Amino acid sequence: MEDKQQLQLVENPDWMSRLPEKLLDVPLWNLALPGSHDSMSFCLDVSSPVLRSEPCLLRLTDRLFPCWTRPCVYRWATTQQSVLSDQCDIGIRFLDLRIARKPAEGVKLFFAHGIYTLLTVKEALEELATWLDAHPKEIVIISCTHFDSLTDGDHTRLVDYILSLFGEKLCSSQDSPTLRSCWSRGQQVIVSYDNQQMLQQHPELWTGIPYWYADSTDPKKVIAYLEDQKHRGRPAGFYVSGLNLTEDAPYVLFHPFQNLRKMTTKALSLLLRWASEQRPGPEVGGVNILCCDFVAISQFCSLVISLNYKLLGEAGSI
After folding, report:
1. Which residue numbers are catalytic?
2. The pTM is what?
3. Residue 315 confidence class, pLDDT cut points 50, 70, 90
């Protein structure tokens, strides 16, 4: 029991800089990278309304019974408990950022998962930039998606801010990044931006990263889905295997006193056992980014990082 608890507390703030020499020229999409699902959901605002993009059932109950609906959504939409810098400290290198315009907040942008966050996009990205300054050999992938209620002007301002904040730290989508190539250029940030207009205007931005998720509350079904996807062949570039459980609106409303953390905790041993059996690389079935909920409560990050050592002896062909 003590060994297990100690493993859960291990931090990996500079794990990329400590990988063996043989792995430094492996494309990042052929390495195993730990990621957090809905990375900003640790700071959801329980007083905020349900998103306009949510199912009609949730929006209707929120309109009629907000004092009941919002705490219910909060319990099921919270997928993380740690701030971004703490997530990066334990080894997370893929951030799932779902961006939204919050009603009555002007041009400020927030994050959202069912309901909106308390922290703004600017506050979160500034925290990440500070962390990157302190860890110059670590590379983080930022996936910007959903963009609930954003206007063209919002997109323009957001991208301009990202380019200004990270500057020369950005890795261009024209590159095939490895750890060594990123270090030689001082690059630390890969920004995936799921908006075609912005992609056409800015070569610094990467296309949306495929995210495999099973849309199920059953961990066995999650694993079966991921196995089926593996046999179909992995994408050529970055992609995510989601170990996260997913509940729909009726499930949330009919289980108001339960929460996602309890469900995830029960499923973790099965999900992590499957993850431990994977190997990264370009072959059919090779994993890349693995995402999980509540990344700070288990050995998830250390386990995913350790998968890279399965590549030793094969790096010349990767």
Report:
1. 37, 113
2. 0.95
3. very low
